[in-house]
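Hey Z.,

So I finally got round to the S-adenosylmethionine thing we talked about over coffee. Here's the setup:
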Amino acid sequence: MPEQPPSEIVNSLFADLPQVHAELGNPEGGVWRTDRPCYEFIADRCEPQWRTLETGLGLSTMLFVLIGTEHTCVAPWKSEIDNLLLHCRDRQIATERLTLIQGFSDDVLSTLPQTELDLVLIDGGHGFPTPMIDWYYSAGRLRQGGVLVIDDVHLPAVRLLLGYLDADPRWTSIVKTPKWVAYERESNGPLRESHAQQRFWSI
Ligand SMILES: C[S@@+](CC[C@H](N)C(=O)[O-])C[C@H]1O[C@@H](n2cnc3c(N)ncnc32)[C@H](O)[C@@H]1O
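And the result:
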């Protein structure tokens, strides 16, 4: 099957919203989501052969399925996972490259195989310190030049993480909006290090 251009992928995504969160507060459209330009950015950047990972599930998960990346999604609720799979099955959309892991990211991420990733989306739990935990265990697997996308940057715990990333020359800001941001990683390998290696950080 020929690859679809990114704009067509996003059009089909919005033309048929997966009703995955009807049981979980029933957000507008039946699915939690962010701003459309975030999905356009991800669709533009991602190659189908990329390895991607996200914390939290929603419209973004469907986007990764439509792009066809080797995608891992960590989300806690069985209903959102079942609903997404049902949505795909009803439309005969292939999900062999999708791994859905039910659980909280702080339990799951450190147990995953430490394969290298091309893009990470952090949009799961937003209470302190979950965004930092998500970043530590997932962004640490990004290759140099890999892309980190973070949603809900107005929330306090996410703002703290951004304060660090903006100060660290190993993360280059590539998109900044009031709702979501994206960075390119300038380093590689795990993120464990001593404070002495973080001289750029003065708070
Ligand atoms: C705002 S929605 C994600 C929206 C999605 N990224 C999109 O753009 O369409 C938040 C998701 O995070 C999940 N979530 C909440 N706490 C979590 C945690 N501690 N670990 C992983 N996922 C979590 C929710 O169940 C939900 O699937």
